[in-house]
């Protein structure tokens, strides 16, 4: 799919850009934004990766003000940006990078772009979890004029501290669709110092507490943090953004919101917390923004409690959405929405509200839209909505309301739309709508009403009413009285059986009437005569059997659906002249009647008569005005010529799935179509077409478009046709049929130029032999005679002289005499197989110079003396298998220079000089098996050598064997496998083959044993080379540990923890929510910042933690190198303990670190210990394998968030 900017590029390419000379790089397009400002769009594979080296300096700097780069989204390859990559583009104001798999954004990348206003970086790393984007702290320091920053969909885990501080002009920030864990990671929270520092001074005294500066103040007005992994809205989480107006934090995992989560946001007007897991909201949440908040989105949470005073004082609130929560009537009272004096829209749908109280909405006099659908409301108390005198839309669908009281809708004087559908209404009080004088649209469908409610009487402003899916059976009592402006009436799915003359007579403005899916079997004449504005009627899925004198007097009718009824007769005289759309499908209509020839007067544009019983299509059965015609799935067998002449508006015709076998070309002939109009589209597949000689035109119909008088057959390639005669396939795709396969049958035919038609012996007179079938194509270039299995004992002399294919198989000829086929000079294919032929004479095939295929298989031929096929110089295929041939003269096939296929298998041949086949240069397929070939050494030597050199041609070479004894039919070895050195004479002096046990018989066993040895050796070396991967696989798949635990660690079971995890505080989100969350399902962990006593000396704490743990896990990142590894006491303590327990260290690398970032000591640890890269294949399996056996009993049963801080002191650990 092309990106949006490429689509814009294509559109702009139409503009005149010749006034500006601009040389765009390859794979880039450009268009003018202004007179001298250019937008450049480039489509690259990657940026500075292992595949590509990208040089942005080739981009012209003079006019380029916007640059958009789109990388290949299918390549999982890292891209990178070097420092000052765009430094020469000094006029650039907009930069966008899409789908480029950046994993780090260095400081200085944007140097030189002082005028940049909009920056978008969307790597879509979310599609490849192994990639995440890291940003340097000074990544944006060079673009201080930035106004809009979009960092969505980058898989960002955290931001460096104060990264956005240089962006003093920033107005909009989008960080949605990342993996942010904590709102504080954004850096917009006013911080407070921790109670005590972790580090201690040199004398053991705590270091003096430092003041942590507040975050920088920014002018951001729009912040989008949606689609991350926040679980908490902390106190003052966004308080640094004093001018924030719009906050999007939807689609997270927030379950808790603190009291002052929105503290300091005094200008906030839009707040979206939808699609989270919030259960309750604090009462003071909106206190600071009470004077500015206008729209609140809280839908699709789990809110079941509304705190008292939550919405108090929000006098500017216009829209409140609380839908799809768990609210019940117990938590909604008169104070819940009090004071919302400007509220216009309130959505409480999809909750669990079971009752309404008149006090609920007492202050909502400005409310215009109230949505209460999908609740459990059973009744509406009197005067519930009285205060809402401005309410114009009330939705109460999908509740359990069974009765509507006379005072339930009191006070709703301006109500225009009321939905009460899908309730259980059985009756409505006659005065229920007396105060709803402005009601225009009323939905009562999906209830249990048994009659038209009396309450609808005299509702003169009512425009539409839906009474569908009820139990109404009578439309006359009480009927529709006084609804003079009603234009839409829906009665679908009721139990109506009869439409009387007065049913709709008092609805003068009625335009749309839906009566489908009822049980209507009769409509009285003139039932719609008084509805002079009626335009559309649905009567489908009823039981009508005629429509005479029903619609003729409704001149305004333009749309009529009478499908799925029981109509058995139809004529265009029953329709009004102005009708444009008619659906008659799924009836029993056998013919489209047009008794008065109205085709030129009708205005019908769309006609659907599919699934009926039509048998033919004629010109007067289709109106001349037709545009769309659907006649599929009928019984049509004939389309008359010139049917579609004068149908000048025709655009589509469906004739598929009928019974059409043949069709004349003129049946699709059209009135000439203008060149500026597309040709009509026809669908004719699914018919049992016969590919006879009159249908060859259909194969080429789409090539006749230059005539502009024939349609385009859209499904031509899907059409299958039945071949009139074929021995291989009965049905083939029409487009694959050869010209000579379009055949017609004949008995006698004489060409017009023939002068001897009245005589018996006439060469140009075609007479099909008795009991035979004969076929020809349109030009008589193919003439097929089929006399198969008709019981002839003599060869026929009446075979037509121009026959091209003759089938005589399955008869009983005995022998083929000389000159049997004399004069058949056009014969190409001859079948005489299975006909008990015992002999073929030398001149049997004389005169058949064009014969290419000859079938003589499965006869009783015993020998070929050399000249039987001498006259067949063009022969390509000859089939002689399954005979009794014991002798073939060496001259038999020598003259057949064009021979390609020869089959002599399953005969009685002892010898034949196979080397003579070299005289047939085109021979590509030979079959010789099933013959008792001689086992004489000399003959075998010749035949075996020839087989090996022509193995590809002999299709049954592996089945050709010699016969040792012709009487007992003892078979020898396969000829192609015989080694001639094993062939020796018998003791009596005659030559033969001795099948002895020789040393070579053991060669297969030796070869097989050698292969097994080599395979075993390869497996051993592979196991050694990949022993670590093999151990991991065995451990994860079979639960087996191979050479994993050393003898020196027998005391591991006495240690308190399975692993001690040390990390940087900035990586705590990854450790606690990803690493520890997964490992603590099986192991007991000690986390550095979660379980340490903050008052303890760090060196002692590290020593005790390592001693108390079976493994030590170091989460290595750049943050760790800068903070933890930089502490002398931390590094020395960890080093001393690891000297004694070197084999128990596991390093988990969060980032790819260059060698210069790692000091020599840490580099040594990485080389000598297990090192795992986060995101690599089978990461969790390798980590579990490196861990010890899980401790059986956990330290405590509380969740991690409720566990107390562990105090690691010797007297407690070793007590």
Automatic annotation (TrEMBL):
Keywords: Leucine-rich repeat, Repeat, Signal. It comes from the Eukaryota. PROSITE patterns: LRR, TIR. Pfam families: LRR_8, TIR_2. The keyword Phosphoprotein does not apply. One of its GO terms (cellular component) is plasma membrane. GO terms for biological process: signal transduction. Belongs to the Toll-like receptor family. This is Toll family protein 6. It comes from Oncopeltus fasciatus. The gene is Tl6.
